[in-house]
Design brief:
Radius of gyration: 29 Å
Number of strands: 19
Strand content: 5-15%
Helix content: 25-40%
Number of helices: 15
Largest sheet: 6 strands, antiparallel
Length: 571
């Protein structure tokens, strides 16, 4: 039995590094013993993880529903493997084969992050590439109105290039493929629209080739996979590994599944090595990679580089959050589930592969399937989400100060690149409203006065013990829905507090009567960006009346919603 809290790595090392004589015949079966111990270690870890039964049920149900033939799932946390298991079948046709944990999968678009992005990270650290540089600095033939497209635009999928190259009429050859990518015309200005594009990473793979002097497969083997002991991660796997490779879709030409040959047709036309697809890998190798990205084990990148590439790099006015290569929060990030926070990152592959890594909880989820076997057409979004949510919930590590916000729920993001913005209300909450303790507070606000969690400032103050005595509403009332000239005084339906209208029957200012039970005023309204109309008038009149009554006044600031990213009109 593996001692509790002992990692698999330490356990295996402790069993094979002692200076003890081997039993007779042991020399003939080291491989068998190693596999047995690995299986024992994985089984013991899985039994100790309370999420394993729910994960087993979810994956087995997906197999039963024929969503996937089978899968390999690994969940890691804080340097330990919590769950490592194979499910279902590796192949269904021409004969059924059982899935094993050492199955090699066509990684599909995981190539973009595990291979190409990693290669760019290496070149970035060597000073050979700058993220803000135009692409044509490195690819001079990248012309035809595309001079403003940058490396960042390619890696975040905001280049404006199409999703993929045309496959008809048929063509073949790596150089022809790159030539077609270089000749592409942009469909939108860079930064204007998110279009997930394989062409972006076909070009990035060529940039790696030109800057390093090596093909992408050679460079990643030498600089990424071998240093991390990812010995079964490669492009164009040899025939000797074919029996362990999960087959994908049926080849129309032969009516037999692709196996050991990349499924993606563009990568196949390009000879099996491309920046967007072509990589083959195992769950165990990806676990090594994820562990490295979390700062554990063998390190090949600076922590600063990892943070730079996995932080939001998309335009600030866009609802999509992407790192450089990595997905953070988009319509493609279902494998984040509903609990891993923004700040975590990952990617998916068309063949059914996915990886998600969360630095805040030091966790990762690797789910590898060959869902396109023997036919494509299955949607794995809900399945991937369930698996990630179960894993995150069972790991159960709270990440203070991190908000769970989802693109698919249409909620406004509360983080921006390099920092988290706190409103004045959020700051007061962090300080437990110390500035307002013992005071009789009057609050000037409307429906925009909410905190990061979406809670009303009124409710937050009362919950913190603030003595809130009076409310004041601007034009359109406290709910922001009164679209009429006069809004009468009323009471808050939740707290019963009186609400004085500052837009009623020609009355736009506070009176001494309104302030008789107030010795501190707080102003918390979101402006419209240009600081005129309701915001400025209400604030001006309130400041003047507070000054006359010598009442202290707090203005809680909120970010300006006008970003300045796009400016139009006469200047």
């Amino acid at each position: 039995m593996i001692p509790e809290r002992l990692s698999i790595r330490r356990f295996l090392r402790s069993r094979f590094t002692r200076n003890e004589p081997r039993p007779q015949g042991a020399a003939n079966r080291p491989r068998r013993q190693l596999l047995l111990l690995t299986a024992l270690a994985a089984s013991t870890c899985a039994q100790s993880f309370s999420g394993s039964p729910a994960l087993d049920d979810t994956v087995n149900q997906a197999v039963k529903d024929q969503l996937i033939p089978g899968a390999v799932l690994i969940v890691g946390h804080d340097g330990k493997i919590l769950h490592r298991k194979a499910y279902g079948s590796r192949a269904l046709v021409p004969t059924r084969e059982a899935m094993t944990v050492d199955t090699i999968f066509d990684a599909a678009s995981l190539t973009k992050v595990i291979a190409t992005t990693s290669a760019v990270m290496k070149l970035f650290e060597e000073g050979k590439i700058r993220i803000a540089d135009p692409v044509n600095v490195y690819l001079p033939d990248f012309q035809n109105g595309k001079s403003e497209i940058t490396i960042r635009d390619l890696m975040t999928h905001f280049s404006g290039l199409r999703p993929d190259l045309d496959l008809e009429p048929a063509w073949t050859g790596y150089d022809i493929g790159i030539g077609r990518a270089l000749a592409e015309k942009s469909t939108a200005p860079p930064g204007a629209r998110f279009v997930y594009s394989d062409i972006n990473f076909e070009l990035m793979g060529e940039i790696v080739h030109r800057l390093s002097g090596k093909t992408l497969d050679q460079f990643t083997h030498d600089e990424i996979f071998e240093p991390l002991a990812m010995h079964e991660t490669m492009f164009k796997p040899p025939a000797s590994l074919r029996s362990r490779i999960a087959p994908t879709e049926l080849d129309p030409a032969t009516n037999r599944p692709f196996r050991g040959v990349v499924h993606d047709p563009t990568a196949r036309y390009m000879g099996g090595v491309a920046g967007h697809a072509g990589l083959f890998t195992t769950a165990d190798d990806l676990a090594k990679f994820a562990t490295m990205m979390l700062g554990e084990g063998k390190q090949i990148f600076s922590p600063l580089t990892i943070k730079r590439f996995t932080s939001p790099n998309t335009p600030p006015d866009q609802p999509i959050l992407r790192g450089l290569g990595w997905d953070i929060d988009s319509s493609y990030s279902s494998n984040r589930g509903e609990l891993f926070p923004i700040g975590s990152f990952g990617h998916t592959g068309f063949t059914g592969t996915s990886v998600w890594i969360d630095p805040s909880t030091k966790s990762f989820v690797i789910l590898l399937t060959n869902s396109v076997h023997p036919h494509r057409g299955k949607n794995l979004s809900a399945f991937r989400s369930k698996v990630a949510t179960i894993a995150a919930a069972t790991i159960g590590v709270d990440a203070p100060g991190v908000s769970v916000v989802s693109y698919n729920e249409g909620l406004r993001r509360m983080i921006v690149p390099n920092h988290t913005t706190l409103t004045g209300l959020d700051v007061l909450e962090q300080e437990k409203f110390a500035a307002l303790k013992g005071k009789r507070v009057g609050l000037i606000t409307n429906h925009t006065g909410i905190d990061r969690a979406g809670r009303r400032n009124i409710d937050a103050m009362i919950a913190a013990g603030v003595r809130l005595t009076t409310l004041f509403s601007p034009e359109h009332g406290i709910t922001g829905k009164e679209d009429r000239q006069d809004v009468a005084d009323t009471k808050d339906t939740v707290t019963g507090l009186p609400i004085w209208s500052l837009h009623y029957n020609g009355r736009y200012r506070m009176t001494p009567e309104m302030l008789h039970d107030v010795d501190t005023l707080v102003f918390d309204i979101q402006d419209a960006g240009s600081r005129f109309y309701t915001y400025s008038c209400t604030l001006l009149y309130a400041l003047e009346e507070a000054g006359k009554s010598k009442v202290p006044f707090y203005v809680l600031d909120r970010p300006n919603p006008v970003t300045g990213t796009h400016v139009e009109g006469p200047l």
